[in-house]
Amino acid sequence: MLSVESDMSLMTEPNLTKVGTRNHHRIAQDVVPGSKLIHLHPISETTNSSKFQKGGCTSWFQPDLSARISDTFLDPHSRWIATDMQGEGCVLTTINAYRTCKAQDAPTSSSISARERRSLLNSNHTLALKPRMAFLHDIIQFIKEKKEKGHKVLLCMDANTPWDHADIRKLKLETGLRDLMEFANPDIFPPPATYDRGDDAKGNIDIALGCDRTTEALLTAGFYGFYSINWSDHRLGQLCFDTHVLLGPPIHSTT
Q1: Cβ(153)–Cβ(183) under 8 Å?
Q2: Distance CA 130, CA 187 (A)
């Protein structure tokens, strides 16, 4: 789970039975008129909402940013939300993504990996039997298409992949995006594990990548302690930007 606070909050796996309810209640308390909440449900093949449902994303924008939104894309396989925001002389595309875990579950399983695989098969995706590779291929192509249009890109994701894994290196190399946590904290990188069952060597799986516009605007970045801010088994990540550098002057007053 990564969050860009407080003007924008990007959350993955918001539908966890216990913590999801509390996080959604907290959001509801903070929502003000003009805010926009975009929710992408995990792929679901059951009506039993009490079951543990991995996956899915929620993007929440406060008024100044919601007023800038010109387009929203919901991945058909429930892997990411992309939102285009109008800035001064640019369009910023924020991507809130969830990459499924490594588990190779039985084809008939109800796990997110198996459900995603079935969704990919139904669309005749060439990498349907390898959902993690399909995600990597598709997100790279999606980012490339946005950049070809001249968009600036900010990607926050629960990668379920260590920060230094070959897949993450490939993602950065092919898209030209930089690790924003590393950019902001070069002397203390990598940070400790970002989910509570991971070890410090390989447990930093929550990734924030951005283009040159985001590095120019980035003021600070870091992670909170477990359970200190949100009710999740992942740390809350925070990126603080100079919004005038990132997007230009406000186009909507919150007062």
Answers
A1: no
A2: 36
